[in-house]
Amino acid sequence: MSALDDVLARWEVVIGLEVHVQLATATKAFSASAAGYGAPPNTQTDPTVLGLPGSLPVFNLRALELALRLGLATGSTIRRRSRFARKHYFYPDQPKGYQISQYDEPLCADGGVEIVVGSERRRVPLTRIHLEEDAGKNLHGAGHTSGVDLNRAGVPLCEVVTEPAIRSAEEAAEYMRALHLLVRYLGISEADMEKGQMRCDANVSLRPRGATALGTRTELKNINSFRFVHRAIEHEILRQARILDGGGAITQETRLWDGAAGTSQSLRGKEEALDYRYFPDPDLPPLVVTDELLERVRAALPELPMARFDRFVAELGLPPDDARTLVGDRALADWFEAAVAARGGSARAVANWTLTELLGSLDGRPLADAKVTPVHLGALVKLVDDAVISGKIAKEVLATMAQTGEAPDAIVERAGLRQISDVGAIEALARQVVDANPSQVAHYRAGKLGVLGFLVGQLLKASGGKANPALASELLEKLLGSD
Amino acid sequence: MIDVFESAATMARRVRGKEISARELTTAHLERIAADQLGAFVHVDAAGALARADEIDAMIARGDNAGPLAGVPVAIKDMLVTRGMPTTASSKILAGWVPPYDGTAVARLRAHGAVIVGKVSCDEFAMGSSNENACGGPVKNPWDPTRVPGGSSGGSAAAVAGGLSAFSLGTDTGGSIRQPAAFCGVVGLKPTYGRVSRYGVIAFASSLDQVGPLARTVEDAAIVTEAIAGHDPLDATTIAEHAPRLTRDLETPLRGLRIGLPAEYFLPDTDPEVTAAVERAIAILRDDGCEPVPISLPHTRYALPAYYVIAPAEASSNLARYDGVRYGLRVGDRKATLLDLYRKTRGAGFGPEVKRRIMLGTFALRSGYYDAYYKKAQQVRALIARDFTEAFATCDVVVSPTTPTAAFPIGARATPIEMYLGDVFTLACNLAGLPGVSVPCGFTAGGLPIGVQLLGRPLDEATILRAARGVERGAGVVGRHP
Lengths: 483, 482
Fold this sequence. Notes:
The complex is a heterodimer.
Chain A: H1 3-10, E1 11-22, H2 47-50, H3 61-73, E2 77-78, E3 81-82, E4 85-88, E5 98-101, E6 108-109, E7 112-117, E8 120-133, E9 137-140, E10 146-149, E11 156-162, H4 169-185, E12 198-208, E13 218-223, H5 226-245, E14 253-258, E15 263-269, E16 279-280, E17 287-288, H6 291-299, H7 305-314, H8 320-327, H9 330-343, H10 348-362, H11 374-385, H12 391-404, H13 408-415, H14 423-436, H15 438-445, H16 451-462, H17 469-482
Helix pairs in contact in A: 3-6, 4-5, 7-8, 9-11, 10-12, 11-12, 14-16, 14-17, 16-17
Chain B: H1 8-16, H2 22-34, E1 41-44, H3 46-62, E2 73-77, H4 104-111, E3 115-120, H5 154-161, E4 167-172, H6 178-184, E5 187-190, E6 210-215, H7 218-228, E7 258-262, H8 272-287, E8 291-295, H9 303-318, H10 338-349, H11 352-364, H12 371-391, E9 397-401, H13 416-421, H14 427-432, E10 436-443, E11 449-455, H15 461-475
Helix pairs in contact in B: 2-3, 5-6, 7-15, 8-15, 9-11, 9-12
């Protein structure tokens, strides 16, 4: 029994996650300043982003549209009239001394995100999704110098808050993957954790198995990769269990996860908890969601990942693993569906060719770089299915397609790769093989039927790989049996 | 021949008619400013003003339309940011800050031909009623240099009354345009909340702040408001309407206009000279055919306490940005901790009244107290607004004194409460978001100006200005100057 299993036998884990997702708008949440990633420090600013005296926020309605996509996709109740509130704290990355957020009137409530844990599917309930603005970044230089880069300040965020309903580190990691996939499907964020476009804070507590009251929780901040979601939470579970098992009590506090060290340290305790002094932002009128806007966003929602997975398995007959892999990358799944559409017929083979041969030919490069088009892949699979070429030849043809972008038919015709399915021609080759391999033939006839495979291989080789393998096997068997 | 006490309308007409040049007009004002003893100006932009005056003259020479304020010298309250011109809100904490942008009202004034001669003093962050809270010291009232000009737009009122600028832009959060206008004998208009963009106005209390003119005549106030008002995509709280037509109807007869006289605004402790002057103004309106209507605004007495929750709460938030990190004052050496930097900078940068209000506001917004203070004050505010809605069912204009007294001596009001009580007649207008104007209606025996306040329905600046014009015509105070 591992240390964790031992802990979990006695303690029930309660986890709630607060995930910040940057919305991929061209401009910032409250001004017309550009909102891209990676520009030189403080070049994506204006009086409002800098918090200059006299500047005012005006809400970017594009951010509302993106947030509504997430709200609708999670089945949330959309508040038709929500409000922005000011959340006050002093820090150099926060140029106004407050962050514009939403407090008691958030945009969305009571949604959920579907996840799969093992073979079980469940819905992680969401307390709320609200809109807010990102802070800048403090940069610490040599000696006593520190700088602040406000490019990120004012980038729109959705904060997605779960109920304390997650029961393990695995589930937390799975929830993060599901949410990540969802926001990418919705086209609302790149959600690259390395770039801070998706960030996670975790509230973790333990309670004795069977207890209903929640234990004292700690909040873990700075969990900035998928790997760390799992590791940081597991580390916190063990840390709390060690204290509780030793007869101690958990201190309510905020802890900072250090990914490199694999540990966390206390950032501030309950006594130092900040009083944010929320109040409705008087610079911003209530945020109103009209019927027209809501219907427009709803109508444009794409098929969601979980629904697509179900369809791939139920309607296209894909193995769940293949379906999961394809659905896990919206562009790849779209590509696959285009190939299926081009080909007609069964999708299993197309999935197989997409996942093994196409991705193999890319060797890690992005799908957008592929010279093979979905239509061409569909056509290639059809050539195999129709026995125009063998699977082996098809792989060679795909290699050429990947280099030149040509249609498979053109490659097959030019190189004369069309499969030989002419009975007379294959019978002639079969005779040659039988004549050239007397000892193997003798073994076969003595009952070692496995030798047939060798003889078929010889025949295919003699045909330059073009002989129809099924026909070759059938004719060889007949020839060997008849003499 | 330059007369610096002419109206802005007259000055612009003469400049456009090439009777005088914008340069001559600007030079005359710059000379007076240089010799000034009132202490109204905190920054003079002589070079910029002359350059702009020359542009206006060139436009006129070419036959171009130089605008309704062509060549007219204007002084801007230091609460409005001006591109390339220091802007401090009369606070040490903004020492040396030069904004990289113009606020919307300032930009619109420039586009209408006005020549900005400089920035004028005010109470620090517009918090005050006497201009004594300015970091540069008090401004003197042009009618009596031992007295305050009022506040917070005290520099604006003094500049206009003292012949240092033809008009001025002020801001009004609880009376900061109307009260100094009354103290200095000029016209001051606070437009409807949302009428004029707050973009580029240093925020004091965002839900109350509004920009407006201080001017020598009602017509000038109307011209300036037409220039600066109207929807602004940079301020989400502006009303989605075009600028109002205000000058057109100024001389329309007042016959039939119902003037509401609120019992709660005519108090025994108001100075008798003020009461008498306001009664004369009411008589003028009645003689013009207006019908006096007794009205009641029962929640008036809650305006002051509600205001002193809402305004400090919003101020405590708006002033959080002055932290010494990005602009303005920074106190603390390179080894100072962040907390030290904040404490020392804010400790040294803000004056006592500003600190008092930040503390009041921070207290009111504490977790767990929001409902008891800010939310309750907002509910009171809604009741005050409802009082006016009901009153405007039976009248068209609400008339009251602007202030309980004429200008008081510098240093006379020693405690904050004494000072706050001087604003009892002007606060409700901001809480209800209504337009309000103060227009001179007489003088005390000692020669101090007295103002009468006219409040109107939301967006109905036209009617209160028309009534103010009636008072102006009848009172015969235009042209009288210190």
